Amino acid sequence: MQDFSTIIIDFDSTLVQVESLEDLAAIALADAPDRAERVQAITDLTNQAMSGALRFDEALARRIPLLGARKEHISALVQVLNGKITPSLLQNLTWFQANRERLYVVSGGFREFIVPVMEPLGFKPEHIFANTFLFDEQGNITGADQTNFLSQEDGKTALLKHLNLPRPRLIIGDGFSDYQLRASGECEAFYVLTENVHRLKVVECADRVLTSFDALLQELPPAQS
To answer: CB within 8 A of 74, min separation 6: which ones?
Structure first.
């Protein structure tokens, strides 16, 4: 087991137990008569993208119009996500805080809710890379910033090439977009976390299967000073 200079971690279904856009839709569509159908459609698109059956950029573009979300719904989502942090992350929080200099969050989710959730846990906001929402004058979410690497297909690979972070690098996640970092050579290893979700096609691609972050810390060196 090598000591990784850079550890990159996905957000949805990895650092938190859920897919955030699904929870945002549930909040925004609370009174909508077609709430169940729209949330299910978002779930289906997410699963297709995370298993590699659908391009990420296409899935993102199709999910946002289904949200029906506004700027004020984001603060409500942050409160929900604060209660859905992955349990083994909380149990090992001291280690994560001690290793914050080499930890990066790279997500196809959105900074508007990821930073408020992760910064209080000790993650550096400047080490958090994610999409950003676009809003109209009324505060409605209308899309994602298309100039952001992470709004694009295989955007995590493009971002890593741009950042040129220290090697060797480890990517930990639950989805196909995480595996793409390993396949492209931008990371030396891909560990799939199955604590929250088990995607068989992704598990088959992984160098290591982690049932929790406990398994990771058993292999990595002690917390850095």
So the answer is: 24, 112, 113, 133
